[in-house]
Structures are given as C-alpha cells and as structure tokens.
Design goal:
Distance between the termini: 36 Å
Number of strands: 0
Order of helices and strands: HHHHHHHHHHHHHHH
CATH topology: MetI-like fold
Number of domains: 1
Shape: globular
Oligomer: single chain
CATH superfamily: MetI-like
Largest sheet: none
Number of helices: 15
Strand content: under 5%
C-alpha cells in the first residue's frame, strides 16, 4: 500500500478517479462527435482533397491532379492580397469600436442603476436577430433616395450621401452594422466577468482612498483582461469568415472594394465557378485561423 501511495500521489489518484467518473458521461457524447465528424471534418478533408485538383464547374473536362498549382495561383493573385487587406482593416477598426463600447456598456449595467434590467433587455436584442435580416434592414436604411438615414440628414440640411457607393463609406456602413449586432455580445461577456469579481475587492480599494478611475485602471481592467482576450480572438475569427451581412449589404461592392477573404472565396467558387481554387482559398483561411484558435484556447484558460 505504501509503495502504491509513493508511486501514485494524491493528485495522480484524484485525476484517475476523475477520469473514471467522466467515462460514463463521455459515452453520451459519442453521437455528437460522430455528427460533428460527418458535418465538419469530412467536408473539410474533402475540401483539402479537391484543392489539389483542377475542378471548374464551367468545364466538362474530368478533373486531374495539379498539386499545389491552385495554391500558387491564389497566392499570386492580386485579389487575394487586396481582400486580405480589406479583411484586416475591417477587423482592426471593428475591434477598436466594439471592445471599448462593449466595456463601457457593461460597466454601466454593472452599476445596477434604475432601469438597468429594461436597458439590458433592449441592448441584447440586436444579437438575437439573424444577420440576413439585419443586412436587409440596413440596406434599406442606407439607400440613397429612400433611406431613413439620408432623410434624417436632409432635415439637418445635409446633402444625400451614397453610403454604399464608395469604398470608404461602404466600409463605414459595414462596420456600423456589424458593431450594432456585435457590441451586445461583447457587453454580455464583459458583464459576466465583472459579476465574477468579488465586491470586497472594490470595498478594500475604496477604503484605501482609490477613485473610480484608479479602481477601473488598477483593479477592474486587469481582472477582465483574460475575457477581453477571448472576445478579441472570437471576433477575429468572426471577421475572417464574415459573409452573410456583407453579402446582403454590399455584395462586396462597389467592385471588390468591400470584399473580404470569406466573400472572395464564395465568388471564386460560385461566381467564377473555380471550385478547386476556392477550396485552396478556404484551406488558406483555415490556416490563418488556426493560430488565432490556439491563442483563443490559451486565453480562455485564464477566464476559467
């Protein structure tokens, strides 16, 4: 008995007991893993497979193996790099807008002022709407002649603006729409992080004479930083695969001035009918997402 105890310490024994307790639960997750493998893993592997072929839906020739030719063509295409720069710009500006506003709203709701519950219910409403419905609604609102935004500006004596007619204004409109729907998500996660902070820490800080700014800078912000890192990683992945709202709102126009990597992958496969090149683009986007995913997993451990 002493030999066993010396060989397997208390921590090792507790881990072994925990694994034994989890085994019956793991059996119930097997159907879920099979479903995920059929709907995610199999299409992904098939996408990698066809990226090494020359499948073109406009051609009746049988596909042949071309190796890394599709990847070479994708990396040499100027559209790939222009859409990548647009994706980076949308990601950077979107994070600059959504993170501060989400934190401000979460801090305001955390104060439990009068009407906080009603205000919270109103704020989470955009997050519950489908991106397609949001994109259609804002497309009408940004309309040059019939949009409510230009109508409001005309009351103030401002000339009509073709919001979706130039790259700058179209990107601005896209960021406004995505931020309107994403800020509630940021707010909820930050609010959950604020709720997890012990009130005794704030009381001790006030006793020491710290002001509101000092408390937020030296106490609140360091404690919610892991949550902000998780939100950042999630939003980066969301921007990399941004499609539905963008497709409904601008369709990547004017020209390709608002086309992101996700939308360019769609256009390559289903507009230009170059399925293998679109698969190569998808694989490259997945490779870009992988480091972000691992950083997200690492940051999420701090939240737990």
């Amino acid at each position: 008995m002493r030999i066993i105890t010396a060989r397997f310490g208390p921590r090792t024994k507790s881990r072994m007991n925990r694994r034994k307790n989890l085994r019956p639960i793991a059996h119930f997750t097997i159907p879920t893993w099979i479903f995920l493998a059929a709907t995610v893993l199999v299409p992904f592997v098939y996408g990698i497979y066809i990226s090494f072929l020359n499948i073109n839906l406009a051609s009746f020739l049988p596909p042949i193996f071309v190796g890394f030719e599709n990847y070479q063509n994708v990396l040499n295409a100027p559209e790939t790099w222009s859409t990548f720069r647009i994706t980076l710009a949308i990601t950077f500006i979107g994070l600059l807008v959504q993170l501060p506003l989400g934190v401000i709203l979460a801090v305001a709701l955390h104060e439990n002022l009068k009407g906080t519950k009603l205000f919270r219910s109103i704020l989470i409403t955009p997050m519950l709407l489908t991106p397609v419905a949001v994109g259609l609604t804002y497309r009408f609102m940004f309309d040059t002649d019939l949009g409510v935004i230009n109508w409001t500006l005309s009351l103030l004596g401002v000339d009509k603006v073709n919001w979706l007619g130039s790259q700058t204004s179209a990107l601005l409109a896209l960021i406004v729409v995505d931020s309107w729907q994403s800020i509630p998500f940021v707010m909820l996660l930050v609010l959950a992080a604020l709720t997890a902070i012990s009130p005794s820490l704030y009381e001790a800080a006030r006793v020491d004479g710290a002001g509101a700014g000092q408390i937020f800078r030296n106490l609140t912000f360091p404690l919610i930083t892991p949550t902000l890192l998780v939100i950042t990683m999630i939003k980066i992945m969301d921007f990399l695969k941004l499609f539905d709202t963008l497709f409904i709102l601008t369709r990547g126009g004017p020209g390709n001035s608002t086309t992101t990597l996700g939308l360019w992958t769609y256009k390559t496969g289903f507009v230009f009918l170059e399925l293998s090149r679109a698969a190569a683009l998808g694989v490259l986007v997945a490779l870009i997402t992988l480091p972000v995913y691992f950083l997200w997993r690492k940051a999420s451990k701090g939240v737990r």
